Amino acid sequence: MKNISLISALAVVSTSFLLVYFYAPSSHVISIENRPDTTHTASSNKTDSTAIFPLNQAAQGEMQFINNMVEQLRQKHGHEIQSIAVQATMQDFRNFVLEQYPENGESIFSQIMHMAFPDYAQAIIELVENLDKYTLWYSENLVMLNDLEPLSRNGKIWKKRHEIFGELAEQIWQKELNSIEEKRQTVQQTIDALDSANDISMSERLYILQNTLNEQYAEESDTYLLNKGMIADVYFRLDSVQTDLKNMSQQERAQALADSRKQLGFSQKDIEMLAKEDAEKEQRWVKGYEYMSARDQLTQTYSGNELNTKLDELRKEYFGKQASTITAEEDSGFFRYERPRLYGSN
Questions:
Q1: Which tens digits make up the pLDDT trace of 252-305?
Q2: pLDDT in tens, 211-220
Q3: Do the beta carbons of residue 134 and residue 141 sit within 8 Å?
């Protein structure tokens, strides 16, 4: 299986993970029909009652709200509250509580957590505080993040997540990671299939690859369509594509490369510029193959210091100022012209 950097890059990053709750306790507001009887004959009693009653009603409503929320949370999450991802959804619930009680919502939220999940309450409260820090950081840096390439953006986001949450980050965003992995596997399966699809045309292979990427990364399609070079690199590394290009004449190959780049969305100016680069690469490879052939003859004829001298002369003849670089590569065991030739890439 090919290790394609784009797939992990497609790794496009999503930061939304919170579940939306719709808590609507019917007992939050006490109807007037349920108020205690306040009819008194003594004027002093009537005055005391009207002064005290609003406070009692507010306190009763708050307590009913807390009790209702505790019961709902126990029923909904009692069996899974040990999950960090589930605990993280309490940030959204906390926000709901603050909407209902702007002045003392934080203390009410804390009370609900301690009543509903006493063993996890403190951890949940601390987690929600850290989520607030992360949410603030993300909102303050949103413009900067949107200007970055997918890999860089994803890297910065995960760096901040680990900075704030440590090893809990993967657990909090597990669904996001699962989704990324599913997309990666789908794209990789398509690439594996196209790799050996020798019975279809180059344009058909490219269409299938583009269509798969657009389906899996629809929300980031603009980003990836703009980064045509990365998609082209994946496409031109397919064995089936390279087989077709290798069996073409130089003129046919140039036209096929131009057609593929046009299909990818490159401008005519870029296509012409890349064609010139292709021609330069072709010349380097031809010279490289000639060098390797001459080098083989020398190694079969000479040895020791005499061979080293002959090789130095040969490298200077073929590569001029680059001779020292070629020497260093060969001394390390790397021979650049023994690499696979990838038309449209190297």
A1: 999 999 999 999 989 999 999 999 999 999 999 999 999 999 999 999 999 999
A2: 888 888 766 5
A3: no
Q: Quick check: helix, strand or coil at residue 88?
A: helix
Alpha carbon distance 233, 227 (integer Å): 11
Cα(161)–Cα(131) distance, integer angstroms: 9
Phi, then psi, of 343 in degrees rounded to 5:
-65, 135
Q: Which residues contact 97 (CB under 8 A, 6 or more apart)?
A: 69, 105, 108, 109, 112
Residue 133: closest CA among 90, 99, 163: 163
- Cα gap 30→33, rounded to integer Å: 8
* Cα-based torsion angle of the residue sequence 193, 196, 201, 202 in order, rounded to the nearest 10 degrees: 80
For residue 159, what are its two tokens? 């760096």
End-to-end CA distance of the chain: 21
Query: How far, in Å, CA of 9 to CA of 94, rounded?
Result: 34
Predicted TM-score (pTM) of this structure: 0.58
Q: How many helices (H) and strands (E) does the chain have?
A: 18, 0
Distances (CA, A) of 221 to 61, 211, 214, 300: 49, 10, 6, 55
